[in-house]
Amino acid sequence: MRPAPYDTLLDDETWAFIDKSAAFYPEDAGNLDHHGKRDVYDALCRAFDTGRPAGVSVQDFSISGPGGPIPVREYMPPTGEPEASIIYLHGGGFILGGLESHDSICAEFCDRTGYRVTAIDYRLAPEHLHPAQFDDALAAFRLLAAQAGHPVILSGDSAGGNLAAAVSWATRGDEIRPAGQLLIYPLLGADTDKGSFVTHANAPMLTTADVLYYDSLRSGGTSPTDDPAFTPLAADDFSAMPPTIVITGECDPLSGDAPEYCKRLIGAGGKAVCFEEKGLIHGHLRARHSVTRARDSFTRMISGFTALGAGKWPY
Q1: Per residue in 29-41, pLDDT tens?
Q2: Which of 82, 119, 231, 290 would you call most buried, defined as having the most Cβ atoms within 10 angstroms of its Cβ?
Q3: Out of 102, 282, 284, 297, which one is annotated catalytic?
Q4: What is the pTM of this model?
Q5: Where do the H-state alpha helices sit in the chain?
Q6: Under 8 Å between Cβ of 308 and 315
Q7: Annotation says 239 is catalytic
């Protein structure tokens, strides 16, 4: 039986995606350590991988990072020299994922926008506690943006959206800054005792308990509440932030983070817009080929990237 209110909020296509995803998790999934969770997540990602569009070329290399070399994967469009770049930070709760988990997603972003996309394989927790993930993301942006010679957009989903927002905040006073940021169902740090963290505490694909677990694993036990590099909403100054597009799913405990974040950016004189995709859940990027609503959301992302890279604000 499909639990309320999701029996009416989610359509059959979305439930098919949820059921297919859930099939990868054993009954004792809650008892798996992070190694076991990685194995399950990697298998799920392979199952939903749709391959790279024809003509997109890929190069793997490493860049210098604060903890050693950072592996990255660069996607180039078939249309020639791009006019902008996207630096992409993958989701996975800071403990899962890498260059393979979001490969086809990044390749499609490249193909649909005509922009270079560079995926960053930042260090994972719990082997590397905060601020390792942020430090790698910041170092990668600074190096790649300095080399780009054109606008660079920061982006990421879930945990990666958190890192993108944190890097945008940390570089807002720098000479080289993001041309914009596009955050996909990001973890930004609203109060987990209210709002969507309560109303969607047991949503399919991500629960509030999952969020707290990931935070604890990333921090080593005690999550800092006053560190913008960990919790972007903890910042006390949102001035000089880049134009920001946030895309969330209605049925996601993280959905309430986005309106508050955009409100603070606008209050500080910035440009920000939040799109809450009705009837969608956390992780709907992987449903872009099977769920009509997710396909429409993906098209919205492409339009957002294209506008930010061209220096336009159509919202």
Answers
A1: 888 999 999 999 9
A2: 119
A3: 282
A4: 0.98
A5: 6-9, 12-22, 34-48, 103-113, 132-148, 159-170, 196-199, 208-219, 257-267, 292-309
A6: no
A7: no
